């Protein structure tokens, strides 16, 4: 294992729990691993590696750090438990708020670490990489701002922080949401979500503080999938067009299979399917007379079950769940589980 080394920033002065006093940050221009940097802080009578509790703290650090990278006190245990939190660090998530979840939520069908508002005003979890409309909150004016544009959760959080205070957070702020205005954000679909400031992760601060402030500059890290092939099985029976809409609304697209390795990866996951076939992104164009992938990939690799299958209009490609996992030509209106690509 390669241990990355870089400079670090630590806390000194008032304890971070004493919010009425200003935290003091100091940069150490020495390359150390995270563990070495924390040990240095402890051995030299400082509080700990830096805790960042707000955008004000973040701006102070960025101003002094410039383009350099430095360790802070945020870390995650290998098997850490993901805890629900609000984006605004002064708003706490507690057990009493669990009644706000929609029936069966949070279900974590895939890695779903971000909270949304449904048309029935209940909460549901969703992939942070999904692009949805969202709601901001302006603490200065106590205004709720409805963003009629679709962003992933991290980008939505940045949008709200740059223009207002943050994503809307906590039941008290949620009470100010206008149901009529939220309906304007929902597309006409049973699979509608609006991002709010609810998220979960297994990260914690080394000094033991419970601040929920995060400022990731990359895609939400808990949702990094296997780097070889990004697919997810959706165990709901839908027509091919319903499956296509679902994948494009929640993830990226219906799955494309361009080689044997991808075929094996997908067929391994079919063992968890609840239908005899699973839809893929294969589609037949009747007017032009050929098969194509909805991702615009050319169909070079093929795994058809039988050359005797007839090409007809309104047909799409499905993989058999059992047997040799061959591809079959099925009518669009049949309903099967399906695979989405997530990137």
From TrEMBL:
C-type lectin domain residues are 25-137, 136-216, 224-341
Q: Which UniProt keywords apply?
A: Disulfide bond
InterPro entries according to UniProt: C-type_lectin-like, C-type_lectin-like/link_sf, C-type_lectin_CS, CTDL_fold
SUPFAM superfamilies for the chain? C-type lectin-like
Q: What is this protein called?
A: C-type lectin domain-containing protein
- State the organism named in the record: Oryzias latipes (Japanese rice fish)
